[in-house]
Amino acid sequence: MNGPYKPGTPCWIDLFVPDQQAALDFYCDLFGWQGEVGPAEQGGYSVCTLKGKPVAGIMKASNPDGSVPDPMPPTVWTTYLSTDAIDSTLKSVTDAGGTVMMGPMGVMDLGRMAVVADPTGAVFGLWEPGTFDGAGIVNEHGALIWNELTTGDTAAASAFYSSILPVTTAASEMPGTEGYTEFKVGGRAVAGMMNLDNLPPGTPPNWLPYFHADSVDEIQAATTRAGGNVLAPAFDMPVGRMAVLTDPQGGPFAVITANAPEPPA
Fold first, then answer.
1. Phi, psi of 62 (to 5 degrees)
2. Whole-angstrom Cα distance, residue 193 to residue 205?
3. Which of 215, 203, 201 is nearest to 243 (CA)?
4. E strand or H helix that includes residue 212
5. pLDDT for residue 4
6. pTM
């Protein structure tokens, strides 16, 4: 990626985690990232890189005053959607029944961020770029390739996201994806959505990141060796082979080897 993401497109992910160094060790070993605990003036935030380009952030879970949260929040990846006007987007969020959980706040000259929840309870971030657009590599081994919302009310979610950002939703036309919805920006699919009915009871609404993997089975095996867990063992589907895993601190993520698109007839 060599330019800004269009508004409404997932542009960045980061992990809020109890043991930052352990998370850095795990993901750097798993995906070949480079990363270390960041400077104190940035709250220790780590920008992990792949081939010298930013791919994801990892930060130690803490309260605004630096104290340890009690109770500790769950370890989850946050998906950030790009916006070119975060203040007006946040007004649209509240007008549409969403909740502002944090922000807006400036991050030096990099940009401005906020964390919000949609009306169905799924938490996500907003990013208005300054000097930092977001992920510098996507769709390669170890890099973000897809983001997926799972919610208990897909109709309400469709209406919400379409009202706060220039995105549209449409039923996926890919074979074997009946009931799956795509978020589109400028006619291009940028994220997906499915119903919570497909997941174990009690699973909260959430945004899940997918990383591209040259071998899903090898990543799954490496995850379990490192103390992570398998939520959905590697399986084949029309768009590729995938698995849903958790890191050793419980953070869910998916990996996929995506099939190349069929050439036009």
1. -155, 160
2. 11
3. 215
4. strand 206-212
5. 86
6. 0.94
